[in-house]
Amino acid sequence: MFAAxxxxxxxxxxxxxxxxxxxxxxxxxxxxxDLTGWYLFLQKAERNFDxxxxxxxxxxxxxxxxxxxxxxxVPMGYIGTERxxxxxxxxxxxxxxxxxxxxxxxxxxxxxxxxHHAGADLIWPQALQCQVEINGVGDLIAxxxxxxxxxDSWADPRTxxxxxxxxxxxxxxxxxxxxxxxxxxxxxxxxNYEQDGWNTVEVIVRGDEGAHIVxxxxxxxxxxxxRQDPGDPxxxxxxxxxxxxxxxxxxxxxxxxxQIRSLGATETLDQAIRLATAQTGRNPAPSARPQ
Length: 291
Hints:
This protein is mainly β and 291 residues long. The chain has a single domain (24-147, 192-277), classed as Exo-inulinase, domain 1 (Jelly Rolls), CATH 2.60.120.560. The chain has helices spanning 2-14, 269-276, and strands at 27-28, 38-42, 55-58, 61-64, 77-81, 88-100, 110-117, 127-133, 140-143, 149-155, 165-166, 175-178, 186-188, 199-206, 209-214, 217-229, 232-238, 243-248, 251-262.
């Protein structure tokens, strides 16, 4: 009798009732007080050296360019996780400040999430990027100079031959598309779900495939991520792990609520996406993307 009383509660933890969802275990990557667990990389500066005070941590947020006047010339760069990650669900929230700086003073406000960064720290590094740019949040960019990255995805056939292909899932008529320097390293989002104020952006990766989610909506997917071998550029290596970076690109921006969870041992990308988008039915349709 005693043994049964102990075993049954334990079984309920590892074998939840049918239809019951196990709550994901999230790990904060930002403690809201300082950059513990992160390093800083800026143009024309040594690692973790910020002579121009680009990054300020305050009120549980990372505030970029707080101390710079509008239009000033500023260095660009990023903070990166000290650890390497694979097979995860990452999310953070951002909002725009009111100032732009050179060299992007007359351009769109811009930031971003780099992930699967496995090479040297550069502007801009060999990695994949989930773009955070006004009216283009969730664009997928295969980044890397001189050694590139590449992914396979699906594009709207009306845009597949253009410099900026637009993502369209195959079940809605999307055709296979591979990023290349010739065809373009960008895959634009499926709709614009950005809103005023705070926005939540998520990146989910399992092996060499992944997805971008903006405010609960899947806006990009890819598979077969790979990178050029720095030792032999003709050779392409699977891109399945790396550091996560948050970008500062001459735009006042705030980041907060930066979290990650490891995917379960048998959890698929589709399962992780369904869990992340469970509440999207209450969200409005995407707004039109400005031309």
